[in-house]
Amino acid sequence: AAAPAHALELDGVSQHFGHLKAVDEVTLQVAPGSRHAIIGPNGAGKSTLFALIAGTRRATAGRVVLAGQDVTALREHERVQRGLVRTFQHSSLFLRGTVLENIVLAAQQVSGQSWGMFRPVSRRRALLGEAHELLRQVGLQDRHGAPAGSLSHGERRQLEVAVALACRPSVVMLDEPAAGMSPAETHRLTELIHDLPGTVTVLLVEHDLDLVFGLADRVSVLHLGRHLMTGNPAEVRASDAVQEAYLGA
Ligand code: ADP
Ligand code: MG
């Protein structure tokens, strides 16, 4: 079968809270392998839209289509199993477990495997090998035995990304991944996202516009729940409508 034209499509997706249209008929496409950012002033609807895509919240109207398949009716964990995986703005780690255990747990939950004594040794070795490789990718290899709760803020954010990647996503959604990070940690994260294999599509919501413009190849702008424009970073930066949306916020 031909590869789907879009990794993800939103078709008229809406979320109304009473009279407030937090997300108002948003239609946009995310290309396979792209680093696609969603930006917009505070209250624009970014977090709500993210929840609708991930399935944390069910849209009032519209469709969410993952690699050509309508996932609108699916729950969040069912979307995870189909390769749509998000990290959380607030930590969802198992803090008493080690860094390595957090990765292995995530990988098992998605593959439906248990970490029992009767697992074939070869399979356990493979899982462990993959977990160590992910930790190397995010720069946490030296911390594999540390309890997740003992990590610095920036290290936790790195681990959250590794946990999301352990779920073998086709689309990974990062919700403000650089929030609270030092400049050095932000730099490392930017490189990590940049170096992810082209088979992984990245969708991120981010306040830090320098990070967005340095990393993203596509940028969608939300304003008052509506999709204002999608373009490459230069087009979005040059847009008068985008400037006004930020200044008027
Ligand atoms: P952003 O992430 O871009 O700052 P949000 O998606 O958090 O924006 O919020 C968009 C709008 O929806 C805001 O006006 C916010 O106050 C409102 N909103 C968000 N969540 C809820 C909710 N659970 N109930 C009512 N209003 C909400
Ligand atoms: Mg938000």
From TrEMBL:
<dbReference type="GO" id="GO:0016887">
    <property type="term" value="F:ATP hydrolysis activity"/>
</dbReference>
<dbReference type="InterPro" id="IPR003593">
    <property type="entry name" value="AAA+_ATPase"/>
</dbReference>
<keyword id="KW-0067">ATP-binding</keyword>
<protein>
    <submittedName>
        <fullName>Amino acid/amide ABC transporter ATP-binding protein 1 (HAAT family)</fullName>
    </submittedName>
</protein>
<dbReference type="InterPro" id="IPR027417">
    <property type="entry name" value="P-loop_NTPase"/>
</dbReference>
<dbReference type="GO" id="GO:0005524">
    <property type="term" value="F:ATP binding"/>
</dbReference>
<dbReference type="Pfam" id="PF12399">
    <property type="entry name" value="BCA_ABC_TP_C"/>
</dbReference>
<keyword id="KW-0547">Nucleotide-binding</keyword>
<feature type="domain" description="ABC transporter">
    <location>
        <begin position="8"/>
        <end position="249"/>
    </location>
</feature>
<dbReference type="InterPro" id="IPR051120">
    <property type="entry name" value="ABC_AA/LPS_Transport"/>
</dbReference>
<dbReference type="InterPro" id="IPR032823">
    <property type="entry name" value="BCA_ABC_TP_C"/>
</dbReference>
<dbReference type="Pfam" id="PF00005">
    <property type="entry name" value="ABC_tran"/>
</dbReference>
<dbReference type="GO" id="GO:0005886">
    <property type="term" value="C:plasma membrane"/>
</dbReference>
<keyword id="KW-0813">Transport</keyword>
<dbReference type="InterPro" id="IPR003439">
    <property type="entry name" value="ABC_transporter-like_ATP-bd"/>
</dbReference>
